[in-house]
Amino acid sequence: MSLDLISFIVLGIITLVSGYLVVASANLMHAALFLGLSFVGVAGIYLVLGAEFLAAAQILIYVGAITTLIVFGIMVSNLQDLKAGGRGVWARVVRNLASFRRGLVPLVAAAGFAILMLVIYRQSLWPAEAPPASGSNLATVGRLLFTEYVVPFEIASVILLAAVLGAVALSRRDDQPPAGSTGQAAPAAERKEGR
Amino acid sequence: MVINYLEVGIFALVAVAFVAITLAIGSLLRPKNPYANKLAPYECGEIPVGDGQVRFHIRYYIFALVFLVFDVEIIFLYPWAVVLEQLGLFGLVEMLIFLGLLVVGLVYAWRKKVLRWV
Fold it and tell me: What ipTM does the predicted assembly reach?
């Protein structure tokens, strides 16, 4: 067994188990942190496949930012009703696996999907070859990104700008009147003065 | 391929093992005598009031959202830094345009006072 295969299997197990724990955890905060762990596993699989830039993006954006966003989302929402009893995760995993609706049906669906993927994998020739183990993947990405794909790169900047503006517009504080509704401008200004 | 990242794997293993071994040694050595007062969360000596998970102010969320955008920006700086020497002035100007557009967003957020903590 090659080192690549071993690391793929280990990372796959980490990803799948933490992915399962995301949906199985009673505590939403634990679920969010397991989601981060499963993102880490996916990043490791990217590394095994030789996609270093993608792995870095996965770590930085998904593990760093998306998980933060989800944790913040949990922190600002009301969680009082979502807490389950004190039973441990794995006890519930065993109980769920024994039940029909939460154990058998998902297992059958997953097995069907796995068989489908295996059949597809067996029948088609994959044109993809193993990437050259250059290690300078990042330089290739950079060279292409800043010469051939300059325009998409700059468009990405505009899209990100739109994202910032949208985020600001959505989470604007109350004392700023919404753009276009001039009727509310006066009381809003008064409220600002009152602070 | 993966052999280049063997150090990362070893590092991760050592990091996990370090925590696990430290906690295991601690749990083996320490005396164990829990009672209700000792198990209560420590809040500077006060008796804890309410739940540990409180609702945080929604204002934190905008910081996370703006951080996400600049995080995506940072990821483009990595390949840029690697090939900047080959690209020369063109690459520099490109990145300055890219950053400039995002600074517009930051200035907008700033002017809209969403970054102000009142």
Answer: 0.77
